[in-house]
Specification:
homodimer; 191 residues; alpha+beta; Arc Repressor Mutant, subunit A; Umud Fragment, subunit A; 2 domains; elongated; DNA-binding
DNA sequence: ACTATATGGGAACAAACGTTCCCAAGTCAA
DNA sequence: TTGACTTGGGAACGTTTGTTCCCATATAGT
């Protein structure tokens, strides 16, 4: 069995079972041989290539390859040739976008108030709670009982205002209550 | 040990080791007791709650909780109270955004040609190769040797044109060569 | 003080694990 | 045919695994 195919089948096993197979599972369910020795030999080869990783206990562990997306440069540069493809950097969406998972939420955007920041109704905002906002951050705030998404601006004199990214909407000067509940860490638009 | 804390420590183990711990590892490195019986009892409780899952072989397996993000409604609805929080839907970024991982790439956007579609320079496009484009899709195309991101439009008579989302840019009427290399499945903007 | 009950420690077991070793079968050159 | 070498099957080893069981201790009730 070719080592690329072996890798693909191990990845399929990983996606199905949410864990890596044991050597015997690879032997019986993937390679379909009867040889432990040969199976370990093929697996060791993948480990040497860096496609798979092993624990201190010898257990197989997924590498980034299992969960990552290939990262190209710019649109204008287009796609690399198959030969160059192996040199590509990779990145997992989770590690890229999520810092503290337990404090991260998805919120759907409604309305046009941030349209000039490229945030449109239907977009999904990834927000993180319990983080100190800085000037210029986009925040989810509860002001006088209403929830909005706005730019967080600190005026001279440390006064806080919430600025929309749409001149048709008013800047908010909080009177009584202003709670910054979360700051927007990413905007995702799925087609 | 409280079961919520136990879950958090198991999740930390999972993020560190990219695999779930065994019962003995939980006993020695997480609960720090000497009792197998008590450890299994606590783990079984988490399995009953649906926080952990088990294989047919009894091996622990991560649930969606380990990799998912809580999904709220709309910005205007704000955050639920801690009591309501347990009812929230969850979703993993990978399963949401990626269909065929091996054909999915990240590309950085340069230029203003799609600005009116809310796609700005610096944004990251998630693109998928080998998929048939439909009218209205945003595609990565190689036309007459140059790479661009444009709307894919099918005119009456089945003629294909590439339309920018910015009136200052020209619509492209491919002369010789037009290769649709990928279609854009998501736009991600990280702050 | 004396039971009855609940709790946690830890030994024990069979299965599954990674790893190594030996040997039969195959391959190749001379 | 012979001998050197490679290959794959599979037994065997020690460890780790999930699971169960027994018993000493703690707790509570009378």
């Amino acid at each position: 069995m070719d080592s690329i195919i072996l890798y693909q089948k191990i990845q399929a096993f990983y996606e199905d079972n949410k864990r890596m197979p044991s050597v015997r599972e690879i032997r019986d369910r993937i390679i379909r041989t009867k040889s432990m020795r040969k199976t370990k030999e093929l697996v060791d080869a993948l480990v040497d290539e860096g496609v798979l990783r092993r624990d201190k206990k010898g257990k197989l562990t997924p590498t980034n390859l299992f969960t990552s997306v290939k990262k190209l440069g710019f649109v204008e540069a287009g796609f690399p040739s198959p030969a160059e493809e192996e040199l590509l950097d990779t990145m997992t969406l989770d590690e890229w976008l999520i810092q503290r998972r337990e404090a991260t939420y998805m919120l759907e955007v409604k309305g046009q108030s941030m349209i000039n920041a490229g945030i449109r109704p239907g977009d999904t905002a990834l927000v993180e709670r319990g983080k100190q906002p800085k000037h210029g951050d986009i925040v989810i705030a509860c002001v006088d009982g209403k929830w909005t998404m706005k730019y967080y601006h600190i005026l001279p004199g440390k006064k806080i205002v919430l600025v929309p990214a749409n001149p048709k909407f008013p800047t908010i000067y909080p009177k009584e209550e202003l709670r910054i509940e979360a700051i927007v860490t990413a905007i995702i638009r799925k087609y």
